[in-house]
Amino acid sequence: MKLYIKLAETLGERIEQGYYRPGDRLPSVRALSQEHGVSLSTVQQAYRILEDGGLVEPRPKSGYFVPPRRQAPALPAVSRTPQRPVDVSQWNDVLDLVKRSARDSVIQLGRGMPDISSPTLKPLLRSLGRISRRQDGSGLYYDSIHGTEALREQVARLMLDSGCQVPPDDIVITTGCHEALSVAIRSTCEPGDIVAVDSPSFHGAMQTLKGFGMKALELPTDPLNGISLEALEMALEQWPIKLIQLTPSCNNPLGYIMPEARKRALLTLAQRYDVPILEDDVYGDLAYQYPRPRSIKSFDEDGRVLFCSSFSKTVAPGIRVGWIAPGRYLDRVLHMKYISTGATATQPQLALAEFLGQGHYEPHLRRMRSQYQHSRDQMIDWVMRYFPEGTRASRPQGSFMLWVELAEDFDTLRLNRALLPKGVQIAAGSIFSASGKYRNCLRMNYSAKPTPVIEAAVRAVGETIREMLGE
């Protein structure tokens, strides 16, 4: 680890732990240089990282200070205890969200798009170009149904960061995380089966259950700690649940990281009732904390956890490359992948293997995590400024999604229809529920660097909410 990164993390921990309080002046560049035995430029680079993350603010001729602590809005309420498993609905509303191109003139606050404008992605673009020009056409051949060996080796190394020791031969490369989720569900369940899910939950997983004719049992979910283990245990006692599906690290849409002790307890429950776990970790590498959180898979000793992820949120969605580490379900997953898409496209796999192997992934992640954390704070400030009093909002611990809760009788589907003529789109909360709950909630994306254009879009959302409340 480079010295300036290590120093930035040390100072960041001191600020987060209250060693330096809001308004305090931080040590000078020269003082830190002497204390840590590093160069002045190393300290300046460390301060730049902290400034990008919103942890410090420079003041001309005065040095660096801890900024005033922002007043946080109240957290969203915990979802209600489920009554029974239900068929998944909301497909038409999901289609309205995903059918728009990123190049449309609409400002898409609702889509799960990362920022792809970072200069740290240039090495990937060069690799894609270089591979496409190879005379041997190696990027044009089918590769193994497992995926290219070079990429599986890099993914196996990457998974070490989440505590997993998975050999490359136990990893299957997929066409994005969506296919990983799909083959995981088909490998463990049959039509009519019941799947326990966190609630609110990723609409893509919900619609996969709908497509396969399965039912969802929504579990109460705390916006800081994740699903209720008590409710899960009661559900396992009452219903023949065939799979537990959840996003425990940097959850979409709530943004929480389930505490490690709760991850262990959840795995213990799954072992007791002999139920597999589908762990969606697509945002895990975007946790603001260091080191990144351990996965449930890292505690798995009997192969019951199917770990799914991709590079769609950390690098770029258009490359459509993900993976699954399915444990004991490997043979079944390979069969399900074969009958769905066959081998994943070779060229983007080779380019990503180069991108990771040449050490470009980690610097890119550091830059994006810092940007997203700063953008989160700005987005929450805008919500507090422009939305009605009493608005609740999540406190994401990673990724780039904010969950907002409005008055109980508010209709965000109607809000979305009112915003589209103004050139703004949000994600209505009902698409994150199998039964259409959370109609008074919405999800907003804050991946882009804050700009006056985005602020104007958020202001338009808030003003339209106020107009609708006044009708």
UniProtKB/TrEMBL annotation:
<keyword id="KW-0032">Aminotransferase</keyword>
<dbReference type="Pfam" id="PF00392">
    <property type="entry name" value="GntR"/>
</dbReference>
<dbReference type="InterPro" id="IPR036390">
    <property type="entry name" value="WH_DNA-bd_sf"/>
</dbReference>
<dbReference type="InterPro" id="IPR051446">
    <property type="entry name" value="HTH_trans_reg/aminotransferase"/>
</dbReference>
<keyword id="KW-0808">Transferase</keyword>
<dbReference type="InterPro" id="IPR036388">
    <property type="entry name" value="WH-like_DNA-bd_sf"/>
</dbReference>
<keyword id="KW-0663">Pyridoxal phosphate</keyword>
<dbReference type="GO" id="GO:0003700">
    <property type="term" value="F:DNA-binding transcription factor activity"/>
</dbReference>
<dbReference type="GO" id="GO:0003677">
    <property type="term" value="F:DNA binding"/>
</dbReference>
<dbReference type="InterPro" id="IPR015424">
    <property type="entry name" value="PyrdxlP-dep_Trfase"/>
</dbReference>
<keyword id="KW-0238">DNA-binding</keyword>
<feature type="domain" description="HTH gntR-type">
    <location>
        <begin position="1"/>
        <end position="69"/>
    </location>
</feature>
<dbReference type="Pfam" id="PF00155">
    <property type="entry name" value="Aminotran_1_2"/>
</dbReference>
<comment type="similarity">
    <text>In the C-terminal section; belongs to the class-I pyridoxal-phosphate-dependent aminotransferase family.</text>
</comment>
<dbReference type="InterPro" id="IPR004839">
    <property type="entry name" value="Aminotransferase_I/II_large"/>
</dbReference>
<dbReference type="InterPro" id="IPR015422">
    <property type="entry name" value="PyrdxlP-dep_Trfase_small"/>
</dbReference>
<protein>
    <submittedName>
        <fullName>Transcriptional regulator</fullName>
        <ecNumber>2.6.1.1</ecNumber>
    </submittedName>
</protein>
<keyword id="KW-0804">Transcription</keyword>
<dbReference type="GO" id="GO:0004069">
    <property type="term" value="F:L-aspartate:2-oxoglutarate aminotransferase activity"/>
</dbReference>
<dbReference type="InterPro" id="IPR000524">
    <property type="entry name" value="Tscrpt_reg_HTH_GntR"/>
</dbReference>
<keyword id="KW-0805">Transcription regulation</keyword>
<dbReference type="InterPro" id="IPR015421">
    <property type="entry name" value="PyrdxlP-dep_Trfase_major"/>
</dbReference>
<dbReference type="GO" id="GO:0030170">
    <property type="term" value="F:pyridoxal phosphate binding"/>
</dbReference>
